[in-house]
Amino acid sequence: MLNALVRAITVAAPLPSLGDNTGDLDRLKKALAPQLAGAMPVVPYQRLGKVAGRFRAAGFTGAAIVNELPGGPALVDFLPQVPPVLVGMALDLGTTHLEATLIDLNTGATLARADLENGQIRYGADILTRIHYAATNEGLTELHQAIIVSVNQLAEELAGIAGLAVDAIRALSVSGNTSMVHFFLAINPYHLCREPYIPMVNAPDPCLAGELNLAIHPAAPVWILPSVGSYFGGDLISGILASGLDQQQETCMLIDVGTNAEVVVGNREWLIACAGAAGPALEGGVARMGMRAGPGAIEHVQIDPLTGAIDYQTIGLGKPKGLCGSGLIDLVAELYLTRQIDIRGKFRPQAAGKRLRKGNEGWQFVVVPGEDAADGKPVVLEQVDLDALMRSKAAMYAILTTLTNQVGIAFTDLHRIYVAGAFGQHISPRQAIVLGMLPDLPLATFEPVGNSSLIGAQRILLEKQARERSLEMVKKITYLELNVNHEFMLRFSGSRFIPHTDQALFPSVPFFDGE
Q1: How far is CA 128 from the centre of its chain?
Q2: What is the mean pLDDT of residues 307-312?
Q3: pTM passes above 0.90
Q4: What is the mean pLDDT of the chain?
């Protein structure tokens, strides 16, 4: 049953008279209370005059707009009649890209979907650069304004798609990492990257959109999913909501790869989590020909072991522009299985043949020649790209093993591994196992959950239970800080081979020894 963040409630209040001198707002609140389980709504100061004036102008009958907040209902507007559609915006506040949907709060239907590059990128492609920039004179203000401009641009695009005015958007739920939330709220992020890595706030209280100069309705509540720590943000809380990990009887795992690799293990009784830098090489942030999962990105690769012929598939089926994370994983796994790279992830010239050529920084492997590529430039994999992927895959496996070891469980004890984001949507688990990135388990163990950050934000808009769960689960999550974890560093070193230095961990993967 839907219990949306914003509701339109029909009200017909008794008319004022000489025998009833109740004030307009008091009259409205008293009439509303029975429909709010007896709770008397509060009216934010900024909305006092508007609500009272519109209530009287409507003849004391119409539709009250109520924000359902943790501290109780807030009465923010009054309309002559119930609006034909009540709209909320769910936002995945990503480091590199924003993605959002418009949701009908009455039915749960998706009205529009769009994405946009994060305008903060001009100040730094990565979070750390932006945190340092925020410490300059007007840095934080500029970063804050850049993200507000981006969100407004995205809101206007969504409203246009849905055929609505942008101020018809009556609610906003925001799911993002801890740093992005600090920028969004213009809160100093200085301590996020400095020991002991403590945010200014983990669970910011909802505010009104007008306070942030957002283009949506100024009385729209802005609900921001809470974080657990500097490297465990609301986007991962969204992932837990989307996968239902916190309600599972069996022990499961959630993996979300973006700017970082974020991992949660647990069930309805307990949750433990950690995060580490395993993401950039997999989301187009390191490889020269790397790109996000979008049209023209090579998402799957096969190499004929006899002829060396390469068969690939692009997202959208057009000419290739580059490799997204899943394509990169497929390619490197195939290069290993055809013995064109060794267990260290180094090219073997005697096996790679004519596709291998010398570049400015070492060997380059030509995946797609220029005449077959979208822009006439060949799609290549360089040795430096391979080295970055080897570090990322080692970090990923080290994160997984460190976390499971902390709670004394084996990978075989996991009922399900949920894999979130574009990484989960496009990845071939089998190829990730070949590389030693994911544990050697039956493929049915792995379940993609799509953009879980956005899915969680949508549930926040529509479900009171989801809002309550998001606030409760942060209290029972144990966060493991990898920056000071010696075991993680040891496991990382052991994982920097294909599939691993300990072959017994990957019995289904062929082992090629020597050169």
Answers
A1: 18
A2: 89
A3: no
A4: 90
* Residue 376: CB atoms within 10 Å: 10
404 Cβ contact partners less than 8 Å away, ≥ 6 residues apart: 253, 265, 410, 411, 414
pLDDT for position 286: 43
- Answer whether 228's CB lies under 8 Å from 479's CB: yes
Nearest alpha carbon to residue 227 among 150, 285, 175, 290:
175
Strand partners, 264: 254, 273
Residue 8: closest CA among 57, 59, 68: 68
Matching residue, tokens 């002829």: 307
Q: How far apart are CA 157 and CA 91, in angstroms?
A: 13
Could you tell me what percent of the chain has a pLDDT over 90? 61
Domains of the chain: 6-79 (3.10.20.880), 87-224 (3.30.420.480), 245-276+391-505 (3.30.420), 281-389 (no CATH)
Residue with tokens 């390469």: 310
Does residue 404 sit in helix, strand or coil? Answer: helix
Q: Which secondary-structure segment (H or E) carries 154? A: helix 139-162
| Overall residue count recorded for the chain in this entry | 515
Confidence band of 160 (pLDDT split at 50, 70, 90) = very high
